[in-house]
Amino acid sequence: MVMEGQTIRVRAAEAGIYEVVFDNTTDAVNTLSQQAMKELADAVSILQSAADLKGVLFSSNKPTFIVGADITEFGQMFTHDEDTIVDNITQLQGILNAIEDLQCPTVTAINGLALGGGFELALSTDYRVMADSAKVGLPEVKLGIYPGWGGTVRLPRLIGIDNANEWICAGGEKRADAALKDGAVDAVVAEASVREAGLALLKECIAGKFDYVARRTEKQSAVKLNTIEQMMAFETAKGVIGAKAGKHYPAPMMAIKTLQKAANMEREAALLVEAKGFAKLAKSEVTRALVGLFLKDQYVKKVSKRYESQGTPVKHAAVLGAGIMGGGVAYQSASKGTPILMKDIREDALQLGLDEANKLLGGQLKRGRIDAAKMAKTLNSITPTLSYGDFGRVDLVVEAVVENVNVKKSVLAEVEEHLGEDAVLTSNTSTISINELAKAVKRPENFCGMHFFNPVHRMPLVEVIRGEKTSEAAIARTVSYAKAMGKTPIVVNDCPGFLVNRILFPYFAGFSQLLKDGADFRQVDKVMEGFGWPMGPAYLLDVVGLDTAYHADEVMAQGFPDRMGHTGTSAIDKMYELGRFGQKNDKGFYEYKLDRKGKQQKVVDESVLQLLGDAVGEASPFTEEEIIARMMIPLCIETARCLEEGIVASPAEADMGLIYGIGFPPFRGGALHYLDSMGLDAFCEMAKPYEALGPLYQPTERMKAMAAAGETYFDAARS
């Protein structure tokens, strides 16, 4: 062994051929941490001094190649000023430059994921051999930055400007066939043969069959397009990518400008342009929020993994109620490999559930995500039934009947009689108390909530709700099932609305009060969409369903009468009275008509303001700042309350619940990150003019104390 470190070792593969093996001894995956980069620099130094050096192979002893930089180190790195960050990035770039400048051919054997800095390292070698099962990519824009270790310089010179724009600005992962087609890798082989194929290619280079020097020179020179061709490529991309990224996410546009500025430069000058742009992005609030989200997501995954390790896997599940929701649950379970019974009391309801699963699978088939065999297998894993005959063998049941406490209690008591003693029974309820529903069952320790969000196949969050008598074993199995379904479970304690809806309905209450005071719902939607929400509150209510919102609002008002109760008729009440339920019957705050693709299109209905009657006040002007304050203050305060009351265990889980559950703007990092960014003292000052509106607008005593002490919900490195 030539060198053996904590993350890298160097060995002589054959006479004159050395192999740099990435094998992190402290983690399950390889990352380019500070330790790894130090060891890589040492390894390159050893190679530079090897008298018999003929070629170098870079490989991995993990199932992945390298998943990127160690993002947990970003918080500290990005606290420095821009000049310091540039110096730091330049040093790291220098390590990859040294690889590219080795006096011999170099090849990377990509056996698994090679992302971010891992792929940038591969780009610094002369050739790349990739497993047919591997993926590569530069996902940095998802963290608010762009590739900073030479990715913006080497990739466009290797695969062309158009391809590089798409790879870098979209931040997606590329399968082997796409990477080979674009020219990002040179060969694709079976995973078991990657190392051998890499060695074989290296030997051919040593034998002079491939001109690795010419390949290297191409990566270090200016882009081979004339001025007009470059202008067309970059200006066209700016229009497309700018429209997709939007004003809140600057990284994709900054990446294009960096590529364009550096296109006519040779390597060293181009890398400096890259480093300066990277540093500017690293200091932005958006990057701080998005890096924080990544770390919070990792934390949530660790928490659910701990539960999962304590739970028994669900081998066979069941869902009660075969409507759109039940069909969605059945589809999600079966498509991820867990067979499921789907029970209802009516044949036509069962058919509706099967139709929903069939429609979703058909869409997957049409897009090439699955083949006919996979579709058939998934459908065969859903067993429709009108009886409880096979329920004795299921490990977990999801009750998904109508959102009515008495109906749910009746169904839960009925199904429990047919289950094995250790089977877990869950209720997919959005607001009804789990403790209340538990009164209907004989084994409350085996009962908990499992709140899916609609549409089930798209929404990543599942709230797992712990009741007073719920056992940890029941929680663990439910979390395990949610993860097996491809969902992100967050465990919360019972209260009306649980976490997400408890926070969402104060936001809706703020909206209703704004309309009472004369705001135009269309202006409110426009302002909140400009703030970053995927849809404004009126549009969101139409999507949720005004009937669903009406009943949930009643539950919330009963549960928290001091701040969620209201007198008079609200806009939600009025819409419900009018039978305008939103998208489900094509009329709510807006009308919905099918476009040419058969999708519902929102259309302004000029009659709505008149129809709302006394639910809205006399038209009155509001500034954008007033609308944002009146919408966001109740949401933020309720989030803080949920944390203070132990409904949610951590700030990270609270923020991720809002991101995954209701589409809180990711670039703002979640409600508690938003409070930290603003400063609790500034937030409390913002709330003061609105405190007369009631408790929804009055910060908690704990928030005021934190504001006075200058405390935050996240420390600087993790927020």
TrEMBL record:
PANTHER family: TRIFUNCTIONAL ENZYME SUBUNIT ALPHA (PTHR43612), TRIFUNCTIONAL ENZYME SUBUNIT ALPHA, MITOCHONDRIAL (PTHR43612:SF3)
Residues passing through the membrane, by range: none
Annotated 3-hydroxyacyl-CoA dehydrogenase C-terminal domain residues: 497-592
Family: In the central section; belongs to the 3-hydroxyacyl-CoA dehydrogenase family.
Keywords per UniProt: Fatty acid metabolism, Isomerase, Lipid degradation, Lipid metabolism, Lyase, Multifunctional enzyme, NAD, Oxidoreductase
Catalysed reaction equations from the record: a (3S)-3-hydroxyacyl-CoA + NAD(+) = a 3-oxoacyl-CoA + NADH + H(+)
Start and end residues of each 3-hydroxyacyl-CoA dehydrogenase NAD binding domain: 317-495
UniProt organism field: Neptunomonas phycophila
Keyword Lyase set for record: yes
Pfam families xref list: 3HCDH, 3HCDH_N, ECH_1
Pathway: Lipid metabolism; fatty acid beta-oxidation
EC numbers on record: 4.2.1.17
Record-given protein name: enoyl-CoA hydratase
Top-rank lineage group of the source organism: Bacteria
